Amino acid sequence: MAEQLTGLINSTESFGAVDGPGVRFIVFMQGCSMRCRYCHNPETWNTYTGTRRTPQDVLQQALRYKSYWKNHGGITVSGGEALLQLDFVTELFRLSKEQGIHTALDTSGNPFTRNQPFWEKFQKLCEFTDLFILDIKEMDEEKHKKLTGQRNVNILELASTLSDFGKPMWIRHVLVPGLTDDEEGLHRMAHFIKTLKTVERTEILPYHTLGVPKWEQLGIPYTLKNMQSPTAEQIRRAEIILGIDH
Ligand code: SF4
To answer: Which segments constitute the Radical SAM core domain (predicted)?
Structure first.
């Protein structure tokens, strides 16, 4: 008998309000290869914890909240890194689209490649994904490596690919004063975003320290201990550079 398709899930949230339009059921996948210094979900990094669930089971749970979604809400898959479990996400979104549910994928883009089998699977995922929410953490490759432990060339290529495919996108940038808010980097990001044809929204995510106790519990040294959250002025300055209107 063929093995049943499952995904490794960290947790779910019934009434998400920020990861996509409207009220959303959020699925947090387990596993991420990045090591962002400000990550507020380090418990999602490993692939030896989490719960194995089928797409059907997750969809059944999500459907309990359907009446709250109205015209705009739906299902968002986030992480950890959702693109590490392409088969699961694609099947969950395929089943969701059969029921007319809006689907959004929140990703750091790190697994993206045009190599097979990823590329073919990714194109299939795109068929069933209404919105991509993509984090751009740094434009400069070296700074990106220092911040996340990984390169960013393929992440920027993912953004360009989604633009070429005509896929709606939200771009997000975590703003850490003194680390990810330098003027040159923000201008480079603004310039890059202008090259993309399908960006519906650009958002600043202000750095916060709510995840720090999790690092301590996991015994992982937290290297941004003295960093502050950005002030309203610092956020506004970055928004102006990135062309964000309110
Ligand atoms: S990509 Fe997301 S989950 Fe992974 S380390 Fe970075 S912030 Fe954490």
So the answer is: 18-245
